[in-house]
Specification:
The protein is mainly α. It is about 45% helix and about 10% strand. The protein is built from 20 helices and 23 strands. The chain has a three-stranded antiparallel beta sheet. Helix 7 packs across helix 10. The N and C termini lie far apart (about 85 Å). It comes from Anabas testudineus. Belongs to the glycosyl hydrolase 47 family.
Length: about 600
């Protein structure tokens, strides 16, 4: 039956693609499903049956990992991390990134020692409190955002602001000395706020949608292009709302929400958004709609923002988008690119960045659909030992000039979420496949190199900071279901900790939300600090009210306290239940005077 399902999938997909974009290749018409061929050359029917049968048997005999095996894999992942991390420190610091083929460094996103910021919370995830403390202190003394550098607003937010916020929220668990009132104050929080303030000039537009680049010293250049990608407009609510809730400054959350609402109003009549937009005119420059590059984290932040902030508006936005996505872009559990106004297929490709989608679906409880889509993506991984940036679904092969794999984390991320949701060890097998592929293909004497071409495993001279921030972190968490980030207590000092004024808040008890760079944020901290800020504001309002002189009625107006028709009695701001004098006197022996 499974074999028939594969053939049915192929026939249906061929028909849909044929009707949408014209005739497909002769290879495709020979009934050769992509999951069953390592290359585009097609197999005879007997061989096809045999390969499909092997595929079924392989899936049916999923290995069940023991606790000992998972512990051993965690040690291998730690070794992978430290090989990359130490290579960066020895050869590239203070540059942004390591060049693993030439054993030196380069600045890429703004000259912030980016890899160190991005990797900081990973140190604690792996249990290294000592190095976390050392690096946190080092960053406070060496990183300066007051520099004449053009920086990506999007990348600086997710990597720098997100990384510093996460490190700040994990500082207590890392054993750092905390300021009174933490997590509502602290040096790493101030650094995150400083970095975010450098991004605010980008949001000063008529529409509220931000420019893509900003100069950290001078603001937005007069010659800056107004065209930016959809994700570059809609990927701020997690970091900026966290900043506002922790610091009490509503500016950050307000600009992020304004950008989201402006983008929401630009969707097409069929409910889709394109890939690139002019932020000044609100005109779509690239009208391809999908869930991959240029759009992905916009949808991710609507869901995660709704969860973290308990925000029905964000969830409602995503659900409307999701309905259009399912109606127009989904074909047999693949997601294609379509024209945003017509819904016709424009690119029948799978992009590696789309692999976050099954994990996002799992957060909403759509497990059946998520599992089927994951299996499609996993079949591509098994074909190449990684996910090419673009994969042609009709041809079952890479797209020209898009054959690389820069060690991205998205499929591993989805595996982590789906394993947490289902306990299915198929997702652990993906983790093992990823670990072994990266070790065999990408490891160099000076770290791990991006794969330039998955067809022949040529390497590129770059190790992106997200390899340490995301790929390794998600791999480790996949094989550690009892980690404190999952609500367990095997790492650090326990499963929760005190925080806030007087230790009145319970923090770190679970429910962490990962930003799109895998930096975990604790919703409890946001509630803790915003509650204290609200209490302080209410107290200020009360004191201000009590300090104002009582207004006397104008001459000739009655001083009667009787209510007028339709008028309702209101309580004063500060009121207590009326008690008889003897009851007051009995409370701890105190005598209450009128003052």
């Amino acid at each position: 039956m499974f074999f028939l399902h594969l053939l049915d999938f192929h026939h249906i997909f061929c028909l849909r693609v044929h009707l949408s974009v014209g005739p497909v290749s002769t290879c495709l018409s020979a009934q050769c499903p992509p999951v069953c061929r390592p290359r585009c050359s097609c197999l005879p029917m007997r061989a096809l049956v045999f390969v499909a049968l092997l595929f079924c048997l392989n899936d049916a005999a999923t290995h069940q990992f023991t606790e000992e095996e998972m512990a051993a894999l965690r040690q291998r992942i730690k070794s992978m991390f430290y090989h990359a991390y130490n290579s960066y420190l020895d050869n590239a610091f203070p540059y942004d990134e390591l060049r693993p083929l030439t054993c030196d460094g380069q600045d890429t996103w703004g000259s912030f020692s980016l890899t160190l910021i991005d990797a900081l919370d990973t140190l604690l995830v792996l249990g290294n409190r000592t190095e976390f403390q050392r690096v946190a202190s080092l960053l406070q003394n060496t990183v300066d955002f007051d520099i004449d550098v053009n920086a990506s607003v999007f990348e600086t937010n997710i990597r720098v602001v997100g990384g510093l916020l996460s490190a700040h929220l994990l500082a207590g668990r890392a054993g750092m000395e905390l300021e009174p009132g933490w997590p509502c104050s602290g040096p790493l929080l101030r650094m995150a706020e400083d970095a975010a303030r450098k991004l605010l000039p980008a949001f000063q537009t008529p529409t509220g949608m931000p420019y893509g680049t900003v100069n950290l010293l001078h603001g937005v250049s007069a010659t800056e292009t107004p065209v930016t990608c959809t994700a570059g407009v809609g990927t701020f609510i997690l970091e900026f709302a966290t900043l506002s809730r922790l610091t009490g400054d509503e500016t950050f959350e307000n600009v992020a929400r304004r950008a989201l609402r402006a983008l929401w109003k630009t969707r097409s009549d069929i409910g889709l958004v394109g890939n690139h937009i002019d932020i000044l005119t609100k005109k779509w420059v690239a009208q391809d709609a999908g869930i991959g590059a240029g759009v992905d984290s916009y949808f991710e932040y609507l869901v995660k923002g709704a969860i973290m902030l308990q925000d029905e508006e964000l969830l409602s936005m995503f659900r409307e988008y999701d309905q259009a996505i399912q109606n127009y872009t989904r074909f047999d559990d693949w997601y294609l690119w379509v024209q945003m106004h017509k819904g016709t297929v424009s690119m029948p490709v799978f992009q590696s960045l789309e692999a976050f989608w099954p994990g996002l679906q799992s957060l909403l409880g759509n497990l059946d659909s998520a599992a089927r889509t994951f299996q499609n993506y996993y079949s591509v991984w098994r074909q190449f030992g990684g996910l090419p940036e673009f994969y042609s679904i009709p041809q079952g092969y890479t797209v020209d000039k898009r054959e690389g794999y820069p060690l991205r984390p998205e499929l591993i991320e989805s595996a982590m979420y789906l394993f947490r949701a289902t306990g299915d060890h198929t997702y652990l097998q993906l983790g093992l496949d990823a670990l072994e592929s990266i070790e065999r293909i990408a490891k160099t004497p000076c770290g791990y190199a991006s794969v330039k071409d998955l067809r022949d495993h040529q390497l590129d001279n770059r190790m992106e900071s997200f390899f340490l921030a995301e790929t390794i972190k998600y791999l480790y968490l996949l094989f550690d279901p009892n980690h404190f980030l999952h609500g367990g207590g095997t790492e650090g000092v326990g499963s929760w900790e005190e925080g806030g004024e007087g230790g009145q808040c319970v923090l770190g008890a679970g429910g962490f939300i990962f930003n799109t760079e895998a930096h975990p944020l604790d919703p409890a901290a946001l509630y803790c600090c915003s509650r204290h800020a609200q209490d302080r504001q209410e107290l200020r309002d009360i004191l201000l009210h009590l300090s104002q002189p009582t207004e006397r009625p104008p001459p000739g107006q009655s001083d009667s306290i009787a209510l007028k028709p339709g008028e309702r009695k209101t309580s004063p701001l500060l009121s207590c239940p009326v008690q008889p004098f003897n009851a007051r006197f009995s409370v701890l022996g105190q005598v209450f005077t009128e003052n």
